[in-house]
Design goal:
homodimer; seven-stranded mixed β-sheet; DNA-binding; transcription regulation (chains A, B); globular; CoA-bd (chains A, B); Arc Repressor Mutant, subunit A; Rex_DNA-bd_C_dom (chains A, B); repressor (chains A, B); DNA-binding (chains A, B); 16% strand; alpha/beta
Chain lengths: 254, 254
DNA sequence: CCATCTTTGTGCACACGTTCACAAAGACAT
DNA sequence: ATGTCTTTGTGAACGTGTGCACAAAGATGG
């Protein structure tokens, strides 16, 4: 604390690695838990264990933020909570709109992790007129027609899409046109956005498929599937039992 | 270059990169859509555009599976669908249990992307006795007491946890003890599992925080309360993502 | 059969991410 | 103060992922 004082732009210049950014929320969660237990300081080793990462990685991650630790002691929990929150932009209020209030949209609206992190559900939007006015998580659902107005009036810059895949691109376009520049997409489809707009996707089906891959490998790589299968015109085999809808609905249209 | 048998199965030996595995479901989705439109072949360029990735990356990814394309022509859609499905282990049936039938659990149970990919919801489990017997997505919810029996009787190896954070570790332990070796965790907590068990996590709050970070950066680091940001000329030289995709996996291996 | 054209498959270079291992910084006891 | 002990911060090695650019493979037309 003596020397460095606050200004320690170490690596802080303007480049925190993406991989590090993705872990900051993880650290923040662990630190918040410690804070609630009134733990004053924590070592990189302890915190790393709590966050489920390797301690060297954690120290390197923190080094991108600056030198906030004390050698021989560890990190001040409260201070670190503040620094990470600030770095992530959680010290400001982020109004969010959720579009597509099916099962998933409702789950998101009810999710406590939002409010506790500076995210505020500014509006719930659904295309189904039958949903309009119906309260979900205490917030009345609004019709899609209101989308642009809601975004503008609330200064929303983050939108969450939990519609069926077929509607996602259109919703995305409207959100972007209205001023949204970050989108969290739960619909199983690739979204095209103009430059400057960030999209992150969460695809439940993809996660399961990745697990299946590893599961299959564990179960004895060569067991199922019939081995090599000479080229031949594969034509059809029953394997393509793809339903008529593929993987379309992310949530029930309600 | 591995040794020996340099014939058909090129790099297929035993090492498909994780990053490639994570993209296979993406390709599969795009290919399935093409298949439904009866498109016979597709070039790496077209398919890459549909999947939202770079074509060189796609070709390299496919090269790990083997040489399944025809130069000057492209890839046979049906054949590739089969090969990727087989590689991912989707040609077999994967019974899945979902534990924690709140809003999110219900959304998952209703999610169409599961059934259409070889995943079958074998059971829904919830600790609340008031839920027992109540049908969700056409499947009656069973009480937690049934967890072990259900896993054993159905040969379930993949479990989905959508409980509150406080219950997740205990549920995880029971799933693992009963024989589950792959877990998809939606609870915002780090799960400890014995070696040999795969965990993938999806944390909605974390995704939003990552978006907030980039959003803050876009806003010039200036504290931007509300109001609409003028669509600044985002022509950043950052050479940002080409695709609409932040590219970081939505979840990370635990 | 030869020429030409298209598109794959991949060598290579580079960027990014992870981990090791250790010097330096500081706390603390004597 | 001095020495010892703990823990950070980071240089360097290593591993993984990405993208360019091009030779090779095969189609197609004459």
């Amino acid at each position: 604390m003596a020397t460095g004082r606050t200004h320690r732009p170490a690596n802080r210049s303007r480049g925190i690695p993406e991989a590090t950014v993705a872990r900051l929320p993880l650290y923040l969660r662990a630190l918040t838990a410690l804070s609630e237990r009134s733990v004053p300081t924590v070592s990189s080793e302890e915190l790393a264990a709590a966050a489920g990462v390797n301690s060297a990685k954690l120290r390197k991650d923190f080094s991108y933020l600056g030198s906030y630790g004390t050698r021989g002691v560890g990190y001040d929990v409260e201070y670190l909570v503040y620094q990470i929150s600030r770095e992530l932009g959680l010290t400001q209020d982020w109004p969010v709109v959720i579009v597509g209030i099916g099962n998933l949209g409702a789950a998101l609206a009810n999710y406590g992790g939002f409010a506790s992190r500076g995210f505020r559900v500014a509006a719930l939007i659904d295309a189904d007129p039958a949903m309009t006015g119906k309260p979900v998580a205490g917030i009345p659902v609004q019709h899609s027609d209101e989308l642009e107005r809601v975004v503008r009036e609330n200064g929303v810059s983050i939108g969450v899409i939990s519609t069926p895949a077929g509607a996602a691109q259109q919703v995305c376009d409207r959100l972007v046109a209205a001023g949204v520049t970050s989108i969290l997409n739960f619909a199983p489809t690739v979204l095209n956005v103009p430059e400057g707009v960030d999209v992150r996707k969460v695809d439940l089906s993809i996660e399961l498929q990745i697990l299946a891959f590893h599961e299959q490998r564990k179960a004895g790589g060569e067991a199922v599937g019939g081995g090599v299968l000479p080229q031949t015109t594969v034509g059809r085999d029953e394997s393509t039992d793809q339903g008529p809808d593929g993987d379309m609905p992310a949530v029930m249209p309600a």
